[in-house]
Design brief:
Shape of chain A: globular
Distance between the termini of chain B: 31 Å
Shape of chain B: elongated
Largest sheet of chain A: 4 strands, parallel
CATH superfamily of the largest domain in chain B: Response regulator
Radius of gyration of chain B: 22 Å
Number of strands of chain B: 9
Helix content of chain B: 25-40%
Number of helices of chain B: 8
CATH architecture of the largest domain in chain B: 3-Layer(aba) Sandwich
Number of helices of chain A: 6
Oligomer: heterodimer
Strand order of the largest sheet of chain B: 3-2-4-5
Strand order of the largest sheet of chain A: 2-1-3-4
CATH topology of the largest domain in chain B: Rossmann fold
C-alpha cells in the first residue's frame, strides 16, 4: 500500500480528463526541457546522492530547490509551462514523511489542480506530475527523471513553447519568494544519536 | 462574505475573443477569501490565457492586477492606469465590483470572469455555505439565530413543511446533499434556549417589500455624509 501511495500518479485526477492526443512519431532529436521543483529534505538530496552514485539520467531536468513542496503553488507550474518548459514535476518526501507534516500532500493536490487547468487550455495534463522519494533514494531520483523524460518525449514539445525564453529562469522568477539558493547547506542529520563516547 | 466561482474557461475565452490587450483584474477582499478572484487567481487566469494564446498561435497581451476592493471608487483609482491601457478587462470581483469597474471606466469593455453565487461563510476550510440573501428585514431574533429565508429550501417563515424528515430537508441533489431542515434546527436551538414558545407565537407577516424584487435598494446615512 505504501508503495502504491508513493508512486507517481499516472492517470489524471477526477475532472482532468486526458485530452485526445493523436499518436505522433517521437522525434529522436527532441530534447525536452523539464523543470523540477525539489524538496530540500528529500529529492534535492536524492539528486546529490544519484550524482555521488554515478547514476545516469537524462540531462533534460533543471532543478529549483524548495524548503518543502508545500511551498509549491499552481502559478509556479503554469509560469514554467508558459515560458516553454515541456514538462514540470514536483518531487517531495514520501507520504507521511514530510518534514513539515503535510507539505507534500498539499503539493499533490496543487499538481492535480494544475492538471485540470492544463486540460482547460488544451495542454496534456501529463505534462505536470508529483513524485515522492526519500533522500536515500538516489536510484529512484534517476528513475523518475528518466521516466518523466520519456513521457514528455512521447508527448512532444510544449505547444506553448516560446523562443528566446528560459523556462528555468521563468520558473525561478515565479518561485523567487519561496525557492532556496542552490548552495543552501543540506539539512542537518536529525537522526537520534546516542551519547558521545 | 460574498462568494463567487470562476466561469468555465471556454466562456471566458469567448468573452475576450478578438481582443489583443487583456487585463485580468482581481479583487483582494471577499473573492480572494473564497479563493476565486484574488490577485493569485487573477495571475493564474492570466497565465492560462497566455498559454492558450501561445498554443493557438495568437498574439495576445495578457496582464493581471488586483484592487484592494473593486466595489469602491477610491480603490479603483489605484488600478486606473492599468485599466486604461487594456482593450478589455476581465474582472474577477463579485457582481458589485464588476459593475463598479464598468461604471468607473465606462465605456471601457469590462467582462465578468466569475459567477457571483452567494453570501456565505466558510463552514470548514474550502467549503462555503449560504447564510444570507440580504432580504432587508432580519427575523432571526425569532428563530434562534437561524435564517429560514436562506436555509429553508422553500423559505418558509412559519415552521417546517411535510418534507422534513429526521432533521433533513427533502430537497436533495448531488450538489446539495444532506441539507439540514432549517426549521428542525430552529426548533432544537429554541429548545436549547428555553424559548420553544416562539414557535407557537403569532408573528406579523414579513415585509418582503424590503427585499430585492422592488427595484435596486438604496441606503443613505445623512449623518455620515461629508459636510
Amino acid at each position: 500500500m505504501a508503495d502504491e501511495q508513493n508512486t507517481a500518479v499516472e492517470t489524471p485526477p477526477e475532472g482532468a480528463e486526458a485530452t485526445e492526443v493523436p499518436k505522433k512519431p517521437v522525434d529522436p532529436d527532441f530534447e525536452p526541457e523539464i523543470i523540477v521543483f525539489a524538496c530540500h529534505y528529500c529529492a534535492y538530496a536524492a539528486a546529490d546522492l544519484a550524482g555521488s552514485m554515478r547514476l545516469q539520467y537524462p540531462p533534460t531536468i533543471r532543478m529549483i530547490k524548495l524548503p518543502c513542496t508545500g511551498k509549491l503553488e499552481v502559478i509556479h507550474l503554469l509560469r514554467a509551462l508558459e515560458a516553454g518548459a515541456d514538462g514540470v514535476y514536483a518531487a517531495g518526501c514520501m507520504e507521511g514523511e514530510c518534514h513539515y507534516l503535510k507539505g507534500n500532500l498539499w503539493a499533490r493536490k496543487r499538481v492535480d489542480y494544475a492538471k485540470t487547468l492544463l486540460v482547460e487550455v488544451g495542454l496534456e495534463p501529463e505534462r505536470v506530475e508529483m513524485y515522492n522519494m526519500s533522500s536515500a533514494m538516489g536510484a529512484k531520483f534517476a528513475e523518475v527523471a528518466t521516466e518523466f523524460t520519456e513521457r514528455i518525449k512521447a508527448l512532444g514539445p510544449n505547444p506553448a513553447r516560446r523562443h528566446g525564453v528560459s523556462p528555468h529562469a521563468a520558473a525561478r522568477d515565479a518561485a523567487k519568494d519561496v525557492a532556496l539558493p542552490d548552495d543552501t547547506p543540506p539539512p542537518a542529520d536529525t537522526t537520534e544519536k546516542g551519547p558521545a563516547e | 462574505m460574498i462568494t463567487a466561482e470562476r466561469k468555465p474557461f471556454d466562456e471566458i475565452l469567448e468573452l475576450v475573443d478578438g481582443h489583443k490587450k487583456i487585463l485580468v483584474a482581481g479583487c483582494d477582499t471577499c473573492v480572494a477569501i473564497c479563493l476565486t478572484g484574488g490577485e493569485k487567481e487573477a495571475e493564474i487566469l492570466a497565465s492560462e490565457l497566455r498559454i492558450k494564446a501561445q498554443a493557438d498561435g495568437r498574439e495576445v497581451e495578457v496582464e493581471h492586477t488586483a484592487a484592494i476592493r473593486q466595489c469602491e471608487w477610491e480603490y479603483l483609482d489605484m488600478i486606473a492606469a492599468r485599466v486604461e491601457e487594456a482593450d478589455v478587462v476581465l474582472s474577477m470581483a463579485c457582481g458589485i465590483g464588476i459593475q463598479s469597474l464598468a461604471e468607473k471606466f465606462a465605456p471601457k469593455l469590462v467582462m465578468p470572469a466569475v459567477n457571483t453565487n452567494m453570501l456565505g461563510m466558510p463552514q470548514e476550510h474550502a467549503v462555503w455555505l449560504e447564510r444570507c440573501v440580504a432580504c432587508g428585514e432580519c427575523r432571526i431574533g425569532l428563530t434562534g439565530g437561524i435564517c429560514p429565508v436562506v436555509r429553508c429550501s422553500k423559505s418558509l417563515m412559519n415552521g417546517p413543511c411535510g418534507g422534513s424528515h429526521d432533521g433533513k430537508c427533502e430537497v436533495t441533489t448531488p450538489e446539495k446533499e444532506d441539507i439540514e431542515c432549517a426549521w428542525a434546527l430552529i426548533w432544537e436551538r429554541l429548545k436549547a434556549q428555553g424559548r420553544e414558545e416562539l414557535m407557537f407565537a403569532d408573528r406579523p407577516p414579513k415585509d418582503w417589500s424590503k427585499s430585492s424584487s422592488g427595484g435596486p435598494r438604496k441606503m443613505v446615512r445623512e449623518e455620515a455624509k461629508p459636510v
